[in-house]
Amino acid sequence: MNILVIEDDPRIADFLCRGLRAEGHRVSAFNQGPQGLEAARQAGRDTQAPDGAPTLLVLDLMLPGMSGLEICQTLRAEGIRLPILMLSALGSVEDRVAGLRLGADDYLPKPFDFEELLARLESLARRSRDVQRATANQLVVDDLVFDRERMQASRAGRPLALTAKELALLELMMSAPGRLLSRERILANVWGNSEDPLTNIVDVYIRRLRAKIDAGAARPLIHTVRGLGYRMEVPSEG
């Protein structure tokens, strides 16, 4: 794997870099928020190297110049889908929720076990490989295919009859497979800021999509994270 580490604590950064390199991964490290953001932007332009190895970001929450939350929020706002594992000494539920809501893919509180960090990175790497875009005009998650050019979707070769809003919601979820999407983010992206934030329209459309996509399928792809939002993901085997 290609791993970008943004961590200002020199001891933790050195521990991460030595350990990850010993596992055979390519590692680049930065200790300042703004410089780390620029490096992440560059890496995000091509989240997979020519050798097929995915690029992942290990991001500390507390950084000089720019916080990890700000970096995460900026990357996601710019459409950069680099998988992000956020690290923080702040391990409260509120802190984890904040990181996940802003687009982090996983969250690991400090102090952490290195083997657990490796396992989480490997999981993100598998997710990045297994659910990726087939072409610039086609999104693929398992046997679900979305043709952006024709604005058509199918599951296991079966065409799906979807409304314009259902297609927009499906495209948003398939564009970031495995990533938690809050109701607020879905509402802003699909319906715009004019929609009442207290409406339950997101939940209604999620139910409609489930009925059309997951009903009768061997593997459900749309998953609810209670109190946080929704994600599209291929369920783990076993």
From TrEMBL:
Coiled coil start-end: none
GO biological process: regulation of DNA-templated transcription
Domain OmpR/PhoB-type: 136-234
Single annotated GO MF: transcription cis-regulatory region binding
Entries under Gene3D superfamilies matching the protein: 3.40.50.2300, 6.10.250.690, Winged helix-like DNA-binding domain superfamily/Winged helix DNA-binding domain
GO cellular component, one term: protein-DNA complex
InterPro entries attached to this UniProt entry: CheY-like_superfamily, OmpR/PhoB-type_DNA-bd, Sig_transdc_resp-reg_receiver, WalR-like, WH-like_DNA-bd_sf
Annotated positions of the 4-aspartylphosphate modification: D60
DNA-binding span(s): 136-234
SUPFAM superfamilies: CheY-like
Response regulatory domain location: 2-125
Pfam family, one: Response_reg
PANTHER family listed in its UniProt record: REGULATOR OF RPOS
UniProt name for this protein: Response regulator transcription factor
Origin species: Ideonella alba
Organism ancestry: Bacteria, Pseudomonadati, Pseudomonadota, Betaproteobacteria, Burkholderiales
